[in-house]
Amino acid sequence: MAVQVSPFAAGCGAQISGVDIREPLEAADRDAIRKAWLDNLVLRFRGVPMTDAQHMAFTRQFGELEFNPAKLIEMKYGVSTQTDGRKAEIPPEISVISNIIEDGKAIGGLGDGEAFWHTDSSFVDVPPAASLLRSLECPPPSAGGATSFLNCYAAYDDLPADTKKRIDGMTMIHAATHSSGGKAHRGFETVEDVSKVPGARQPMVRTHPETGKKSLFLGRRINAYVLGLPVVESEELLDELWDHMVQAKYTWTQEWQVGDLVWWDNRCAMHRRDAFDPSMRRLMHRTQLKGTRPV
Ligand code: SIN
Q1: What is the longest distance spanned by two Cα atoms in the chain?
Q2: What number of other Cβ atoms are within 10 A of residue 229's Cβ?
Q3: How far apart are CA 29 and CA 49, in angstroms?
Q4: In the chain, what are the domain boundaries?
């Protein structure tokens, strides 16, 4: 049976079926999945519980694995943000996202709170091209924990022409100070002047290296700064762009089931997560594909 691609009505995201992604892929299936990913930004594979080894093997068929964000932060900024209870046997290419506490220690990041809109790890110079998140345990949708994705191509396309002209060619800092849950990383608690914030310099409008399309590339809101502008003007411009970008019409929301794998293009899609009932367990593992320097 060939790969089937069923786009969601939201204009972002598609369900993929007709292939067992736990097995090595035929070249034609791999190419069809890759094309579907570039066309739809986010792919969902449903009913495929897998091991970390299968998850990594699937990811590797599309490129080189990237390290998890804690390792990337440690390599660029020399600070440790790794959760204390992370199990030693989990490889550094896997991120654990969880609210589960074992022996008094969090086994993963982000807890049970909201995660605000963000691009994964754009606080390093070369952010991952893709993130592939799989659900091992999750609350029912009525208890929260849904993840939404945002089409940053569409958000860019709809900007007024004068705004496009203004921001094309501008550079901003994607701050490394906070997690997507809004928690300050150790050592980055105090920022007195956002124009000096530690982070990566990124173009505000990014051209996708494979599709050639332009998208808004804002990283995350907290401590962001547009180079060359007085801080007040930078804040005003960022507020205006964020208000425009996070409109529901650009988004699709994933309600999780155990055995889902959701794969997004981190170069042109942002994501956020709803808070969920803290009495429930949620455990997700994520791989990432290495990216290229944003231009
Ligand atoms: C993330 O921000 O990558 C985590 C999303 C989630 O927990 O659903």
Answers
A1: 58
A2: 16
A3: 19
A4: 4-289
| Residues 109, 80 contacting (CB under 8 angstroms) | no
Average per-residue pLDDT for the chain: 95
71 CA to centre of own chain? 16
Q: How far apart are the first and last CA of the chain?
A: 39
Which residues are CB-neighbours of 170 under 8 A, at least 6 positions away? 203, 204, 205, 226, 227, 228
Ligand 1 atom, smallest distance to 146 CA: 8
Atom of ligand 1 nearest to the CA of 282: 7
* pLDDT at site 73: 86
Domain at 4-289, CATH class: alpha beta
| N residues, the chain | 295
**Rounded to whole angstroms, how far apart are CA atoms 165 and 278?**
45
40 CB less than 6 Å from ligand 1?
no
Q: Which residue has the tokens 């003007």?
A: 233
Return phi, psi of residue 39, to 5°. Answer: -75, -35
Give residue 89 CA to ligand 1 midpoint distance, Å. Answer: 22
Strand order in the sheet with 269-273: 115-118, 269-273, 147-151, 251-254
- Stretch 2-24: mean pLDDT: 94
Please state the rounded mean pLDDT for residues 159-172: 98
157 within 8 A of 207, measured Cβ to Cβ: no
- Pocket lining: 99 vs ligand 1, CB cutoff 6 Å: no
Which residues fall within 8 angstroms of residue 204, CB to CB, at 6 or more apart? 167, 168, 170, 171, 172, 216, 217, 218, 226, 241
199-247 pLDDT, tens digit each = 999 999 999 999 999 999 999 999 999 999 999 999 999 999 999 999 9
pLDDT for res 144: 98
